């Protein structure tokens, strides 16, 4: 007679696609063989893949999950330096959502029991329609890995063990059953509420991290664009200075040529005076020809240089216009950067509140408190007073009760001046706490009462 294998807890690894969805599953021993280099995965060559390590019970329900990154080289071999202790993280992780077998153990970037492994983990998406935890749950239910499943069999009660209660106990039994049912429903409601709060906290942490990453990207892009604009402005200013230098050189050259023309004219005038001595008529003709020639040459040179100066002036005006435009764009980018940097926490809180996010805090005695957006400032000013108001007690009584709740021992003073410090029963509700009575042992409580009567 062969022994039948008994279903037991299974460890598996599931790989996610870049655009969502699970593309590959394997048992943990196969994953260890992959890490040892026995096999490669060419489909993941030169990629960083999102992977989840899960622990599945015999009823195909997930008990633990660890979300981590795994890098592959160009041949599809995993990173040889990878050394994340998946089983240890799964055992030490905090509580997460309920996937059918109670709250799971969840290790991810925003909830990592070992801080130095946090950078190698990632946060699962909990958005409706894109819930990575739901994908893991459904994949485990499909049992593509061929795990042994434990069949749920309800034990039958033998007829001889059935007993009939007397008629007068029927109604009492019904009352007890109703009370137990009510207690069970209340317990399930509390578990579901706590689970929802946990899921919302995880989602808020994920959204905050995404917002910080987006803000960092915007700041980096803004700094790069600002640097490029500054470099462009420097280039334009350098070109402007070079153009101004060239214009100065052209003006100096024009002045030198004008001086040369003036010198030539004076020389010609001197020649005219000499010719006048030999003949008035020939001199007049020569003088007229020389003056016409000189004036024509001067006019031609002046027109040519005026055209060059006008061209340079147009180019300078264009350069100035570009400089003004660049300065305006730079000022606009600076204002946008200041607006992004100046966006305060209140606007973020209002945006989160419009998205349906609820702000929940925990205080002993008051439990989990849902804080409306309009009460956030009052809560920040004095959290103790806010919690005391929710417990319908004064802040002083709440602080006394909190000291008693954290260390339930007698606070009476002995004749030596030391505290009695005898352990006493804890009062769980602030409204039932009475200073000088609830925080004293029986002996000092009795002596306090005697003093009060006397």
Can you give a write-up of this model?
With 454 residues, the protein is an alpha+beta fold. It folds into 3 domains: 7-149, no CATH class; 215-341; 354-453, no CATH class. Helices cover 54% and strands 11% of the residues. The chain is built from 10 helices and 8 strands. It has a 6-stranded mixed β-sheet, sandwiched between helices. α4 (170-278) packs antiparallel against α5 (280-341). The chain is elongated, with a radius of gyration of 44 Å. 13% of the residues are buried.
Write the layout of secondary structure elements.
Elements: E1 10-16, E2 22-27, H1 28-35, E3 48-56, E4 62-71, H2 86-92, E5 94-98, E6 103-107, H3 132-142, H4 170-278, H5 280-341, H6 345-354, E7 359-363, E8 367-371, H7 376-381, H8 383-390, H9 395-406, H10 442-453
Parallel strand pairs: 4-6
Antiparallel strand pairs: 1-2, 1-3, 3-4, 5-6, 7-8
Helix pairs in contact: 4-5, 8-9
Strand fraction equals 5-15%
Spans of at least 5 consecutive residues with low confidence: 153-157
What sequence of helices (H) and strands (E) makes up the elements?
EEHEEHEEHHHHEEHHHH
How many domains make up the 3D coordinates? 3
Describe the main β-sheet briefly: 6 strands, mixed
Please state the CA-atom Rg, rounded to the nearest Å.
44 Å
If strands are numbered along the chain, what order do they take across the biggest sheet? 2-1-3-4-6-5
**Count of alpha/pi helices:** 10
Derived structural class: alpha+beta
Report mean pLDDT, rounded to a whole number: 83
């Amino acid at each position: 007679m062969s022994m039948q294998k008994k279903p037991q807890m299974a460890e598996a690894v599931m790989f996610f696609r870049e655009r969502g969805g699970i593309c590959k599953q394997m048992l943990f021993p196969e994953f260890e063989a992959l890490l040892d280099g026995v096999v490669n995965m060419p489909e993941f060559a030169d990629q960083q893949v999102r992977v989840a390590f899960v622990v599945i019970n015999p009823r195909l329900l997930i008990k633990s999950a660890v979300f981590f990154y795994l890098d592959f080289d160009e041949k599809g071999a995993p990173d040889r330096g990878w050394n994340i202790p998946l089983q240890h993280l799964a055992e030490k992780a905090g509580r997460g959502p309920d996937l059918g077998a109670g709250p799971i153990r969840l290790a991810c970037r925003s909830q990592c029991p070992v801080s130095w492994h946090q950078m190698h983990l990632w946060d699962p998406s909990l958005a409706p329609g894109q819930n990575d935890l739901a994908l893991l749950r459904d994949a485990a239910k499909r049992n593509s890995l061929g795990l042994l499943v434990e069949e749920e069999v309800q034990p039958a009660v033998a007829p001889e063990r059935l007993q009939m209660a007397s008629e007068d106990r029927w109604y009492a039994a019904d009352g007890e059953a109703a009370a137990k049912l009510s207690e069970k429903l209340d317990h399930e409601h509390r578990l579901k509420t706590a689970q929802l709060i946990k899921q919302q906290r995880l989602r808020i942490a994920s959204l905050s991290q995404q917002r910080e990453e987006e803000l960092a990207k915007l700041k980096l892009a803004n700094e790069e664009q600002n640097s490029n604009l500054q470099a462009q402005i420097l280039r334009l200013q350098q070109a402007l200075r070079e153009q101004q230098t060239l214009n100065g050189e052209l003006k100096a050259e024009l002045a030198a040529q004008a001086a040369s023309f003036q010198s030539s004219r004076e020389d010609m005038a001197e020649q005219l005076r000499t010719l006048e001595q030999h003949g008035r008529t020939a001199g007049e003709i020569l003088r007229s020809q020389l003056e016409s020639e000189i004036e024509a040459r001067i006019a031609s040179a002046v027109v040519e240089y005026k055209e060059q100066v006008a061209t340079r002036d147009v180019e300078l005006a264009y350069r100035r216009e570009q400089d003004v435009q660049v300065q305006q764009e730079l000022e606009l980018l600076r204002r946008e950067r200041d607006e992004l940097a100046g966006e305060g926490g209140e606007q973020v809180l209002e945006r989160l509140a419009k998205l349906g996010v609820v702000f929940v805090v925990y205080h002993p005695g008051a439990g989990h408190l849902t804080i409306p957006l309009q009460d956030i400032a009052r809560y920040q000013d004095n959290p103790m007073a806010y919690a005391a108001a929710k417990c319908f007690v004064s802040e002083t009584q709440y602080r006394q009760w909190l000291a008693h709740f954290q260390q339930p021992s007698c606070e009476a003073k002995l004749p030596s001046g030391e505290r009695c410090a005898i352990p006493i029963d804890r009062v769980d509700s602030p409204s039932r706490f009475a200073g000088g009575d609830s925080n004293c042992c029986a002996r000092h409580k009795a002596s306090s009462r005697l003093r009060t009567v006397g």
